[in-house]
Amino acid sequence: MTKPSRKMSLFTLIMISSAFTISVRNLPTEAVTGMHLIFFALIAAIGFFIPVALVSAELATGWPKQGGIYVWVKEAFGERWGFVGIWLQWNYMIIGIISQLYFVGGSLAFIFAPHLAHSKLFLLITLLIVLWGSTLLAIRGQKTSSAISTVGFLGGVLFPGALLIILGIIYLLQGNPSQIDMTLSMKNVIPNLSQITTLVLLVGFMRSFSGIEASSSHAAEVENPKRNYPIAIFFVVVIGLIINVIGSLSVAAVVPQKEISLVAGIMEAFTDFFAVFNMSWFIPIMGILVAFGAIGAINTWLMGPVKGLLASAKNGQLPPYFQKTNKNKSPQRLLVLQAILVSLIGGSFLLLPNINIAFWISVAIAMLIYFTMYSLMLLAGIRLRYKAPRVRRAYKIPGGNFGMWFVGILGLLTLLLGYIVAVFPPAQLPTGDLLVYEIVVIAGIVIILAIPFIIYSLKKPSWKIRKRS
Fold first, then answer.
1. Angle, vertex CA 466, rays to CA 460 and CA 469, nearest 5
2. pLDDT tens per residue, range 339-366
3. How many C-beta neighbours within 10 Å does residue 434 have?
4. Do the domain assignments include residue 3?
5. Domain presence at residue 2
6. Radius of gyration of the chain (CA)
7. Structurally, how many domains does the chain consist of?
8. CATH number of domain containing 229
9. CA distance 432 to 106
10. 367 with 331: CB under 8 angstroms?
11. How many helices and strands in the chain, by DSSP H and E?
12. Under a CB-based contact definition with an 8 Å cutoff, are residues 292 and 108 in contact?
């Protein structure tokens, strides 16, 4: 008789959900906007983060099955769209994780030689080592992955984020000069909205708040998911807002805007902070912590969407080869496939002449993918209020169906705005040939959107696993 697997605790769920969503690597992207980050953060939080969090909490507590976005969209719109939904989430992970891997390289460079943060060879080597090392750990199963995610978030995200905020406050209280005008005036806080290249930076803020729904793929492994999942979501929203808004202001106050690197900006901020406090000796230690925090997030993402993809595979959307798991119940073949794809795409981005542009292209394509997936999720939330009204949700968006419509439309309008501006590069970044940039971004999203429909049209009845009676 096999022993029942140990359920995931509320604390572990909060750590995993936080690792999916919160990262100090996003702070340089936000700090580039100066005091305008307050405006962008509020728009992203009110129009995107909170609606997505509320809808995902309702769906996860109503359908607490392993599969997350796949289950929700399938229940609302059928198998084809369920497969499209999980395919998009999985592809977001493949593209989005590349910027995280670049960030690890940029952080580790400060341990040895800061100039390596701009070395393409060093970033590529780091990408391959961290990616394949994390994949091997993920193959060992969820227990190992959860432990790394927890330690990585506490030591490499929460501690550096809190330290950055504390040192930023002390820095200003001591009368040191701020690199930005911190006056709370309308002119200083609200950007020039007539320039679409300024609005593009909203995508970076929405990216900072994305991933809140991904932990739902572990819902079947959680103790009392209908109670614990909404609690975990609440904590993640609060922690995420504090670290992203106040942490970004700390970076902007210390590091001159023109010197902020999207790859290694956090470590540059820490370097300046520690120089002020005569703590330069702590820079290599912080580099290790920040890098480990990013590795913890990478490990979390590697084991998140792939579980939803496995659920769709077992339902016949992928060939039998990808349906098998190892003795640790880990989808080893899918994990190896995604590591190969990340290696190839991540290496290709480094062929671009500017590392910051390579970083932003990976962000833009990833967010276009995710915006599409989130649109499906919000529409599924609205649809299931009518299609499955009797399904009990432990958490339900208040206000009845009107409340769901209000939250859903608010989120959809924000996603539409993000979708429109994401194809343009930020004014703060030199892109070279604008046409080439837009072709790369648009072609990337079109190809990724087309593939799941092609796969679904080619699927065979024999692919579906028949349940034993």
1. 160
2. 999 999 888 877 766 666 666 777 778 8
3. 11
4. no
5. no
6. 21
7. 1
8. 1.20.1740.10
9. 23
10. no
11. 20, 0
12. no
